[in-house]
Amino acid sequence: MHYTNPKTILSPKNGMNIYRGCTHGCIYCDSRSTIYNMNHPFEDIEIKQNSLELLKKELIKRPPAMIGCGSMSDPYIPLEKKLKYTRSALKLINRYGFGFTCITKSDLILRDLDLLKKINNKTKTVIQITITTFDDELSKIIEPNVSPTSKRIEVLNKLNKANIPTIVWLSPILPYINDTENNIKNILETCIKTNVHGILCFGMGVTLRKGNREYFYEKLDQHFPGLKEKYMEKYKNNYILTSPKNNQLMEIFKKTTTQHNILNNHNEIFKYLNEFPQKSVQTSLI
């Protein structure tokens, strides 16, 4: 890990990334792509040392809104357990009356359930959990250093009991690996049981760009011998690699979510994530 001191911490749309880089080891991670111009090894985590000072200054200046994080780096990487930057950011978000949403694959988020509930009681909290496979053993291969699926399901259950709404990212679905009817149905059944508010799915497949393509193919050779050649023959250098079972699986996805009143339109879900509740918020000075 290494430290930096950026000039800003919030994007114009209130996005926040305290960390840059990741140690989750997901074989499909788009954030490895060279398009993002990361100038250090991906597993060498960049920690924005002055992020909390910057966040406080920016929250004071901005009107209350939803603060989002996790789009590039999981805010609950293992380092967070010791550093507690994300937890400290939540304290500021709560203090200044903002809402909070994040994307994570870690059950470490439950450590901060007390703050998530406080924010939700005052404004709004929405937690987004990525689930790609129902099978813990497969999860250990394609997402080796994250909480296994069973732990993430526990997170969904505990958030539901705390009345904190959740969104599940059903993505990516890797051709010839987790693009099975059984996998999709099991994940959807879990979402129904845990009362998720919406499921984001952009189609059954994966995207590959320079940087993450090479890493992905290296891991295919390691864990799924012969599959790289199948990918290269079928998809060439395509950016979007759509599963041959896309139509069948998307029909199951749309039918099931519609029947159970789970949001499945990504525009509606992103609108929901960005909507800040229109009610008076009193800033706490504690």
Account of the protein in words:
- By secondary structure, this protein is of the alpha/beta class.
- 40% of the residues lie in helices and 14% in strands.
- It has 11 helices and 11 strands.
- It has helices spanning 51-61, 79-83, 85-95, 113-122, 136-142, 149-161, 181-193, 212-223, 227-235, 246-259, 266-274; strands spanning 2-4, 15-16, 19-20, 46-48, 66-69, 99-104, 125-130, 166-169, 198-200, 205-207, 240-242.
- Strands 2-5-6-7-8-9 form a 6-stranded parallel beta sheet, sandwiched between helices. Strands 1-4-3 form a 3-stranded mixed beta sheet, with no helix packed on it.
- Helix 1 (51-61) runs parallel beside helix 3 (85-95), helix 3 runs parallel beside helix 4 (113-122) and helix 7 (181-193) runs parallel beside helix 10.
- The longest helix has 14 residues, at 246-259.
- It is globular.
- The relative contact order is 0.14.
Properties at a glance:
40% helix, 286 residues, disordered C terminus, 3-stranded mixed beta sheet, 6-stranded parallel beta sheet, alpha/beta, 11 strands, globular
Q: Would you spell out the secondary-structure blueprint of this structure?
A:
Layout: E1 2-4, E2 15-16, E3 19-20, E4 46-48, H1 51-61, E5 66-69, H2 79-83, H3 85-95, E6 99-104, H4 113-122, E7 125-130, H5 136-142, H6 149-161, E8 166-169, H7 181-193, E9 198-200, E10 205-207, H8 212-223, H9 227-235, E11 240-242, H10 246-259, H11 266-274
Parallel strand pairs: 1-4, 2-5, 5-6, 6-7, 7-8, 8-9
Antiparallel strand pairs: 3-4, 10-11
Helix pairs in contact: 1-3, 3-4, 7-10
